[in-house]
Each structure stands twice: as C-alpha cells, then as structure tokens.
What does this fold into?
Amino acid sequence: MNISLEHISKRFQRYWIFKDINYSFSSPGAYALLGLNGSGKSTLLRILAGMQAPSQGKINFHNKDGTQIIAADVFSNISFSAPGMELVEELTLREFFDFHFSFKHPLPGLSVDKIIELCRLKDAAEKPIGDYSSGMKQRVKLAQAIFSDTPVLLLDEPCTNLDQQGVEQYRNWIEEYSKDRLVIVASNDEREYFFCKERIEIEKYK
It folds into this structure.
C-alpha cells in the first residue's frame, strides 16, 4: 500500500500547524516523522490513519498495482498505536486480544496465545488491563498494532512508558515483524525510529 499527500495542511483555530505537505510513502519502507513536541508530527500521523481530517489538501491510498483504495477500505489496511489511545480496561488481556483480532487478523503464524507470550504477559493474561502498569499497557498497544496483519503500521512515540527491557522488546518486534510493510513512526527519540531510512522534518512545513 502506498500513500500520497497533496498539499496537506492543518490549522487549529487561527494557527497553522503545518502547511502544504506534498509527499509519497511507498511500501515496503520505513519513514520517521521528526520534530519537537507540538510540531505536528502526531497530528500528521492521525491524518494518515484517517482519524483526523486535514484543513486543506488530499490523501490518496493505492495498492502496489496502482489501484486506488476507497475510504471505506482504508481502516482494514492500517494498524495504529499511540500512547494516548484508549484500551478497554475492563477486559482481561486475553479478552482484549480475542476481540481485537476478531476484526483484524494476526500476522501469519501468530495466535492470541503466542502474542501474549511475545508480550511477556502470560502471568497477567487473565487480569483486567485496568490493573496494568503504564509500561504493560504500552506493550499491549504496540502488540495490537504490530501483530495485526496490515500492510501499513503507524506508530506514535512507541517507546513511551517502556523500560529498557521494553525498548529492546520493541526493537526486536520491529526487526522481525515490520518487513515488507509500510511503517511510519512519529518521534523525537532515535530509539524509536532507528530503522527508518527516510526522515521528514515537520518544521520545514511551517
């Protein structure tokens, strides 16, 4: 899946966050959206995910063969993770993954049991997610995105709340499970975008 931006701009009230972004993201590939806090990188990532509308401009989604993907089908092609996204905290981990992977299939060879094992949360699998620490919740957010069988993976500040062991776990997941996908990371921490060959400075679009 390829994504192209045509004159994408975003304004909050009277202030432009970024203006006139023209860029194409091609799959497979790894891209980093870079910038200081408040620069608009997370906003742009949400626009790419279809979670937020641009103030101006147009986004086009195409398959590798060039055929256009209609808006209704974009969701099934994209996985998204951000520190601020909500989890259903009343559910246990197993219940949450069973629910999530009922509408987005896991990557080939993975099952809910295997994903729980990869998260190193087997002992907490039957506990409500609301009882988890912030680092455990972040691992769940990353897992539901990285292990979903989608051609596009969008990650906003993926190492937030992770300890060093969690950062190494993230690094291993990316190296093993992001091949042949379009991955876009919004970050100002090089540990999070170490694998991204293409890097876009959002400040250039002010």
Observations:
- Residues 2-205 form a domain with the Rossmann fold fold (CATH 3.40.50.300).
- Helices lie at 41-48, 71-74, 93-100, 112-118, 134-146, 164-177.
